[in-house]
Design a protein that fits this description.
Shape: rod-shaped
Radius of gyration: 46 Å
Distance between the termini: 132 Å
Largest sheet: none
Helix content: over 70%
Length: 120
Amino acid sequence: MKLGFLFLLLGLMLFNASAFGELSVEDIEKIRAIVKEIVAQEIAKVTGKIDGITGRIDRIDKQLDRNFALILALIAFMGVVIGLPQFLERKKDANKRGRLRCSNNKFWRNSGKSTSCTGK
């Protein structure tokens, strides 16, 4: 008897009256309105976060562009600092060699070229 009473109580606990109830059209519309409102709020939150992330990406893109320009300017500066003295030194050496060639006409005569300093 105690066992039967226990199963009866357990059965009544498991089978709740609301589980057998039906939803009316009004209830479904209320649920639909609540869900629609919650979804709209979440979409607004996500849209705000996306706008914030887009702004940060734009700022980072500008920083990368500026850094790239600075690196190019640094490379150009290094090229000028290193290359200009070498270029001037070579030009100076070429002028010295040219004067030597003009003063030493044997080189021009032996090579079959004219004796003028222009090399024509």
